[in-house]
Amino acid sequence: MKILIVEDEPSLREIMVRELEQEHYVVETASTFDEADSKIAGYTYDCILLDIMLPGGSGLKLLENLKGAGKRDSVIIISARNSIEDKVLGLELGADDYLPKPFHTAELLARIRSVLRRGRGGADTKLRFGNLTLDPDARRVEADGREIPLLKKEFDILMYFMQRPNHMVDKVALAEAVWGDHADQADNFHFVYAQIKNLRQKLAEAGSSASIRSVYGFGYRFTDDAPADEE
Q: CATH classification of 127-223 is 3.40.50.10860, yes or no?
């Protein structure tokens, strides 16, 4: 799950990043209106934590832009301005929740989980493809009921694929979804290739009917109709 924190106060932003990463979220940050506007326009997030008062503009304007573009990213407004007017306006513009500052990180995490559940319609959150079952809450993967031990990035990659079965997956989009801001700093995608290779091996050894196939010049396809290709 990928989260964008839009917050200009460095210490609070650092605390939020640390707590969210401990919960295995992929976290990106923006500290100004323009930086946030660029990221929201160019990328998709499972949840955006949005401050109202930002250098260069209002978080409410960012929310208006987001919804006006037809994007469905979940949004939780976090603001020291706890006025009824701000709360009502934010919710009317399409925010999913409103959390006034100061707040406990435990409450923030609970709000995020609640918003993400609502975004999935309150349905069973487990993902299934072929003989694989992935539980994002327990961070557990099974093949025919037998657990497959995966490292954090291996799990995140597999979840990304299982959310897009039989779809073409661009390696750049995959890197941005799993590594967040750090993907922009890479000169090549060797770190992606290495993780894919390890994940393929673990899936094959566990008897997975699903495999990751390379699509030359583009990226990958997650399928259950053929063995994995070599990278």
A: no
For the stretch 21-40, pLDDT in tens is: 998 898 999 999 999 999 99
Residue 178, CA distances (Å) to 86, 94, 117, 173 in order: 33, 26, 20, 9
Tens digit of each residue's pLDDT (9 = 90 or more) over 35-47? 999 999 988 899 9
- List the structure tokens of 15: 């605390």
Segments making up each domain of the chain, as ranges = 2-119, 127-223
Torsion of CA 51, 57, 63, 69, to 10 degrees: -150
- Considering the four listed CATH numbers 1.50.10.10, 3.40.190.290, 3.90.190.20, 3.40.50.2300, the one that applies to the domain covering 2-119 is 3.40.50.2300
Q: Please tell me the distance from the alpha carbon of residue 94 to that of residue 85, in angstroms, as a whole number.
A: 14
